[in-house]
Every structure is written in structure tokens, then in C-alpha cells.
Write a structure and sequence with these properties.
about 325 residues, mainly beta, Outer membrane phospholipase (ompla), Chain C, three-stranded antiparallel β-sheet
Length: about 325
């Protein structure tokens, strides 16, 4: 449990949503994508950094914080169109007033080694000209994802059921972990101002970091229990208008935008589906997102459960 100044620090950081590298270049750039790649900063945004409130139908509401960065690990003059990065995304749930003791629970820890391949020599610029984004690229990566929890056996689970004030809370502490291979493609079509993202993951039965995958156990005795590859691994997302999603501007227009995302597993495609809708509003320069989701993967611990979820958050795609 985190208390005091640690909790306050988390709340000052502006749930993971459409989790994909936006390809944003935070330093002003001119010329082609290849020239921009030669001037990229070492520290960059990866997935959106967010802070808000989430309500899952199988859980108490919580303050939902997601932090994400990536670090370029090659000099500017090496591989200008194939850029290696180390990336890290973490998610925390702060049950402020909705659980006894208002605990902070780790939801996701997701380090990755990835290569970004620039497939087009084109940049998309923000309306004020201060930032740019690659119009098209492919990310290829090896990643590890877990929730960092400590319950690995039926005996440990039974002990948590006895001590937890609500039996539903015990599920949050069951350990989940996978290594996976990942390929993601993002393209900004420009005219119309629409972006598309396709994402594929393959969860390794035995990985270099995780070892044997750690997912649903028969002793959990849940009729919805299933492997992660049944509910996750294939996803597609469409955003419109892209310029209003990725580039906040200091003006008084609302500048609404919409993202739709579909996810399914590759074990039996379309048997278990997740649909997510996000409505974004830039109120002056403040990026607010309202979202709703029906399906799976609402949390890593309970990835196999079909859950309805809604939330509101501040979302920052760059820094």
C-alpha cells in the first residue's frame, strides 16, 4: 500500500486506453521523417499517460493512473529509419474511499524492447507547428507484461479470501504474467483526417523474462476462466480526426474526436470480443476523454471476465 506523499505524487500525474505508440516527436522538426529521426530526443512518450476515474462492473471504482515512456537506445546517425527503443508502461489503481484503507494496487507492469520502422518519409505536423508525428510506421517488439502480484497457489488464494473484506478483492492479487511478441502498424491517412492502428500479439508459453506463462488457474473455479489468447492478441482501432486527438492547442474550441477499438483473441477469433469507444474533448488545452468498454481485459488480473466499464480521464500523448 502506498500512502502519504507517494499517493499525492501519483494523483498529480495527468487507464490504459488505445495502447499504441503515437509516433510523436516532441521537438520541432522540419523536412522529412528521415531527417526528423536524426533529431529525435532520447526520452519520448510511448503509450498515452493518463489519470482519471474508472468504474468496472465487477469492482469498486478507482483512480486510474497510467505512466508510459520510451528511451531511444541508438545514436542519431545509426539506423535512421529503424530506431531501437526501450519502453515501459505501468498502471496503478488507487481505491480512494471505495475500499477499506484506500489501497494503491499495481495493475500492469509492461517493459518492452522494440524497433520502430519508418515506412514513409512523411510527417504530420500539429496545427501550431510545434510538434510532429510520423505519418506511418511499424513497431516490432518483445515484451513482458505482469501485474506484479504475489498469489501463485491455491493455498495463498484461500488465505487471501479469508482476510479480504470482500471476496472479489482477492482476485486482484492473483499473479498474471506473459512474455509476448508484438507487431503494430499505425497510419495517418491525412485526407480524410483519419488514423488506423492494427496490433497483433503472440503470447509465449515460455518466455525469456516470465518463464512459463502464468494465467487462469483451475483452482480459481470461475466458469469464465480461459487463456489470454482467447480474448486478446488481435486489435484494430480507428481515430477521427487525428489532428484533434494527438495535438492539443491553446484555444477555446472543444475540438471533439472519436476513437473506436475492437479486440479479439487469436485462439478462436471473434468468439470473445471487446468493443471500446472514446470521446475526446480539448477544453482549451486540457485533453479530456470519456470512454466506455464492453468485453474483456478490463484489468490484467481479471482479463478473462466479461466486464462493462466506463471512465473519465486526462490523457497526454506527448510531453
Amino acid at each position: 500500500m502506498l500512502k502519504g506523499s507517494c499517493v499525492a505524487t501519483l494523483l498529480l500525474v495527468p487507464a490504459i486506453a488505445v495502447a499504441v505508440d503515437q509516433g510523436s516527436i516532441t521537438a520541432p522538426t522540419t523536412g522529412s521523417a528521415t531527417q526528423a529521426a536524426l533529431t529525435e530526443p532520447l526520452l519520448q512518450p510511448y503509450e498515452p499517460t493518463t489519470g482519471g476515474f474508472t468504474q468496472d462492473s465487477d469492482d469498486a471504482g478507482f483512480v486510474d493512473v497510467n505512466l508510459s515512456v520510451k528511451i531511444r537506445i541508438a545514436p542519431d546517425y545509426i539506423l535512421p529509419r529503424i530506431r531501437p527503443f526501450l519502453a515501459m508502461t505501468t498502471r496503478f489503481g488507487f481505491y480512494w474511499g471505495t475500499r477499506p484503507g484506500s489501497p494503491v494496487i499495481g495493475k500492469t507492469y509492461n517493459p518492452a524492447l522494440l524497433l520502430r520502422i519508418l515506412t514513409r518519409d512523411t510527417l504530420v505536423r500539429s496545427p501550431d507547428g510545434s510538434r510532429s508525428e510520423y505519418a506511418e510506421f511499424i513497431n516490432v517488439g518483445y515484451a513482458h507484461e505482469s501485474n506484479g502480484q504475489l498469489i501463485h497457489t491455491q493455498q495463498q488464494y484461500q488465505q487471501e479470501l479469508v482476510s479480504a473484506p470482500d471476496s472479489r478483492f482477492a482476485d486482484n492479487f492473483i499473479h498474471r504474467g506473459w512474455d509476448y511478441l508484438n507487431v503494430a502498424w499505425k497510419k495517418n491517412f491525412g485526407d480524410p483526417d483519419v488514423s488506423m492502428t492494427l496490433d497483433a500479439k503472440y503470447f509465449l508459453p515460455n518466455g525469456l523474462l516470465q518463464g512459463a506463462e502464468d494465467e487462469y488457474h483451475p483452482w480459481e473455479n470461475n466458469p469464465q476462466g480461459k487463456p489470454r489468447k482467447a480474448v486478446d492478441g488481435i486489435s484494430a482501432a480507428v481515430g477521427w480526426p487525428t489532428s484533434a486527438i494527438d495535438f492539443p492547442v491553446n484555444d477555446l474550441r472543444l475540438r471533439p474526436n472519436l476513437i473506436l477499438k475492437y479486440t479479439t483473441g487469436y485462439q478462436t477469433p471473434f468468439a470473445y470480443s471487446t468493443i471500446r469507444a472514446e470521446l475526446g474533448l480539448h477544453v482549451a488545452s486540457l485533453p479530456i476523454v470519456l470512454w466506455g468498454q464492453h468485453g474483456y481485459m478490463s484489468s490484467l488480473a481479471n482479463y478473462y471476465k466479461r466486464v462493462d466499464a466506463v471512465g473519465i480521464e486526462l490523457r497526454f500523448d506527448s510531453f
